[in-house]
Design a protein that fits this description.
Layout (H helix, E strand, L loop, with lengths): L1 H20 L26 E14 L5 E13 L9 E7 L9 E13 L2 E6 L6 E6 L2 E7 L8 E10 L8 E2 L6 E10 L3 E8 L6 E15 L9 E19 L17 E9 L7 E2 L4 H10 L5 H5 L2 H10 L7 H14 L11
Parallel strand pairs: 1-10
Antiparallel strand pairs: 1-2, 2-8, 3-7, 4-5, 4-8, 6-7, 9-14, 10-13, 11-14, 12-13, 14-15
Length: about 350
């Protein structure tokens, strides 16, 4: 019996190890005629299938005296029917700072449509100049592109890289969406200086989920203040955490009438920066406490600043509500009901709505 248990554990360990070492089945560096064949078991009812979706986030020392986030996405799509032509148009979201007017940089973009014509592969590359910029809100813009020569049976390859100085904006990853995904993978190379909270959602099981450590050295260049001075270079050593998450054969998630927010049900992972700690320096708390968050929200001009300044509409509301002097649950209920009855959404999307 003991020997049987040992064998079971050994087999399970070997299976997990095999999954951990399994590589993405798609080679983004080349394409063959065989790639146009779809397994009969694949759900083609949505008109398209994402053959592979691979993302990677890493950090690099920059020439501005700190670090930058480098995010790379590689995606291969198979178009089955006109129903899936929506995937021929893709958006690249970029974060923008209102304070500095700086924006994440789309460093590179390469996309190609492949068609099988008389047994030979024909390719048509995306003209990057054909894309356009669309402003979503004050902090978000998207670069929008539509692939050329897309028809039934086409394969689309998309690769792009984003360089970001906004370290709090570590790219999230959705393993699931409105089209089936045969392989969805996300990789994170995280230096020990940066601390994030990992938030997982969804119910689809991981095919592989691994973490390993690797030594890495960074050379941060600090720009000189004077013309005649030289830049300073600071070397920092780190034991990085290399995380890898993989899901296989992820079904499309259909939106139902009772579904309030689709994103809450999609299998994925998100990140929130909680702090930073560099050698010989104390821990710098980024996330803070709920009390700190509350104070920051009340001072934010997009959220609570008006309440502090008490404009006329706030004074009128307070008179109408006739609240008790001390904070009570009844006061909170009255305020909630008043807002619910007197305010409507303008339909805009931002961090607070």
């Amino acid at each position: 019996m003991k020997m049987f248990r040992i064998l079971v554990v050994a087999l399970l360990s070997a299976n997990l190890c095999a999954h951990a070492q399994e590589k993405c089945p798609v080679n983004f560096d080349k394409i063959s005629v065989a790639d146009f064949n779809i397994n009969a078991a694949v759900d083609t009812s949505f008109g398209a299938v994402i053959l592979a979706d691979v993302g990677k986030s890493s950090f690099e020392a920059n020439k501005k005296g700190f670090f930058s986030l480098i995010y790379k996405l590689q995606r291969r799509i198979k178009i089955i029917s006109p129903k899936g032509f929506d995937l021929a148009t893709f958006k690249i979201p970029l974060y923008k700072s209102v304070k500095t007017d700086s924006e994440e940089v789309l460093e590179s973009l390469s996309a190609t449509t492949y068609n099988l014509v008389n047994g030979k592969i024909e390719e048509v590359k995306l003209d990057k100049a054909s894309g356009f910029k669309e402003v979503m809100d004050k902090n978000h813009v998207v670069r929008k592109y539509t692939m050329p020569a897309v028809k039934e049976g086409s394969i689309i390859d998309i690769t792009y890289t984003i360089n970001s100085d906004f370290l709090f904006n570590l790219q999230p990853w959705s393993f699931q969406g409105t089209y089936p995904r045969l392989w969805s993978e996300y990789n994170l190379n995280l230096p020990e200086f940066f601390h994030y909270v990992f938030l997982s959602r969804g119910t689809h099981p991981f095919h592989a989920k691994t973490v390993k450590e690797k030594f890495h050295s960074y050379n941060v260049r600090i720009p000189a203040e004077g013309v005649m001075e030289r830049d300073d270079i600071i070397s920092l050593n780190s034991t990085n955490s290399i995380s890898r998450w993989v899901m296989k054969d992820v079904p499309a998630l259909k939106e139902e009438s009772f579904t309030s927010t689709m994103s809450n049900h999609l299998s994925g992972i998100e990140f929130q920066m909680s702090g930073q700690q560099f050698p010989n320096n104390p821990f710098r708390d980024i996330m803070g406490s709920w009390g700190k968050v509350s104070m920051e929200l009340l001072k934010d001009k997009e959220f609570g600043e008006d309440l502090e300044n008490k404009p006329e509409w706030v004074k009128t509301a307070l008179k109408t509500l006739a609240l008790e002097e001390k904070p009570t649950i009844d006061n909170a209920k009255k305020i909630y009901a008043y807002i619910q009855q007197n305010f409507t959404s303008q339909g805009s999307k931002s961090i607070y709505n």
